[in-house]
Design goal:
Elements (H helix, E strand, L loop, with lengths): L1 E3 H6 L1 H11 L3 E5 L2 E6 L2 H24 L6 H7 L4
Parallel strand pairs: 1-2
Antiparallel strand pairs: 2-3
């Protein structure tokens, strides 16, 4: 569902109910261009889990790369003890 900023101002409660109870996603538009989206908490949890899995894969890949910098050296560059 797509709504303008004016429509969302007047119908926020309805839009939230559609998202929370109907599983819909609401795209808020300004001048016909998407600016933000309302999604359910379940959708948000799924998105965050996907991001976490992507971060874990990237971290595992980085750990396998050669030429790492020791933590002590990084701390020294940052002026940390």
């Amino acid at each position: 569902m797509k709504v303008s900023i004016t429509e969302i101002r007047d119908g926020l409660a309805d839009a939230l109910n559609r998202v929370a109870y109907g599983g819909e996603r609401v795209i808020v538009e300004r001048r016909g261009e998407g600016m933000a989206a309302l999604i359910s908490m379940a959708d948000l949890a799924a998105l965050e889990e996907l991001e976490n899995q992507t971060d874990i894969k990237a971290a595992r890949k980085a750990r396998k790369e050669k030429g790492g910098v020791p933590l002590a050296k990084v701390k020294a560059r940052l002026g940390m003890k």
